[in-house]
Amino acid sequence: MKSRKVIALGLAAAMAFSLAACGGGKASKGGSSSGSGKTASGTVANKDKPVVWYNRQPSNSSTGELDSNALHFNDNTYYVGFDANQGAELQGTMIADYIKAHKDEIDRNGDGVIGYVLAIGDIGHNDSIARTRGVRKALGTAVKDGDSIDYQAVGTNTDGSAKDVQDGKVDGVDLKIRELASQEMKNSAGATWDAATAGNAIQSWSSSFGDQIDIVISNNDGMGMSMFNAWSKEKKVPTFGYDANSDAVAAIADGYGGTISQHADVQAYLTLRVLRNALDGVDVMTGISKKDDAGNVLEEGKDYRYDEKERSFYALNLAVTADNYQDFTDSTKVYDPVSKQLSSDKKKVWLDIYNSSDNFLGSTYQPLLQKYDDLMNLDVEYIGGDGQTESNITNRLGNPSQYDAFAINMVKTDNAASYTALLQ
Length: 424
Description:
This protein has 424 residues and is an alpha/beta fold. It has two domains: 26-82 and 264-423, no CATH class; 103-237, 3-Layer(aba) Sandwich (Rossmann fold). It has helices at 2-22, 68-71, 84-101, 126-139, 195-209, 221-235, 246-251, 264-280, 359-375, 391-394, 416-423, and strands at residues 51-54, 77-82, 113-120, 144-145, 148-149, 155-156, 176-184, 213-218, 239-240, 256-261, 304-307, 312-315, 318-320, 347-353, 378-384, 405-408. The strands form three sheets. The chain has a seven-stranded mixed sheet, with helices on one face. The longest helix has 21 residues, at 2-22. It is globular and about 70 Å long.
């Protein structure tokens, strides 16, 4: 009888453990957890598996309106990016501060006009829109389009007659500021944020009105460095970008004017941490605003902010200039407050990068992800796209059942349905 009792207790314990493994976690801030802490071979339907959109927020590329259906695909769906408006204002302020500090020598040809050229990454991308607006607002060249600042490219505007911008001013500087030219950097195959196109553009602009160009501005460092290396470094024309890529940070010592760190270390951590929390069936804020068992935690308001309505985590930006660039020389270093190893079971994640040639995503973001995936015990399959067609990526998600979670970086922000349709 005693042996039967032991066997019965053992079976009961095994059953309890099995049920616990299939049980859901408690409701988390921003949505309930499905507790999908099973392997890909388990019983979780694809439509219920954790999804994180990252870097490109599901939205209408014409209006900027967020795609609520994509952001609420299931209870474990979130977006991770950075605060585009805060970063855009920071970039504009950085450039305005530079002009103030160099007002006596910045007008290269002495015509009384500080002329700048602007490389626009993607006219339909919310981040690109924000950065164009941020620069124009800070330099006084902004023109209102309804209630918002016009973000369209002006082509060539050496005479100041363009309708999408106006001549501006910066407080304390007795010189006009003019957007001499701006262009969306899209190549012939349709890829946007294209560095080679930016390099060609600065060659064309400099041939047409070179000594009028006093500042070169870019929506990102990939395009900024292409223009810097092609022309402005030799001419000692300050060039400003965005992303704090390692090569751009290093180039500040050689005259690159500055860049903006979008806290890629925090973004990469959040991209995988949100998935890890959903897979473990714990509160989504574990290891984010709430310290986890290993001691990982971020500081809300300093490192990131969370918008519950938008189900979005936004890393906060930092200006990188000649005064502090040495603190940012390694863009792939994990963020110390969230660098401790977790003990969770291994899970498999499908993650795509919309353009395998993108400088920021390839040289900064992916190396960070690869360091964090090890810390979080995630087996991540990295898929590199061509930057042009969604199908180049979606065609490689033929069997979503073999994955526990998905991290998605779209080619176009309108195309979230191309991915969710594969998970239905």
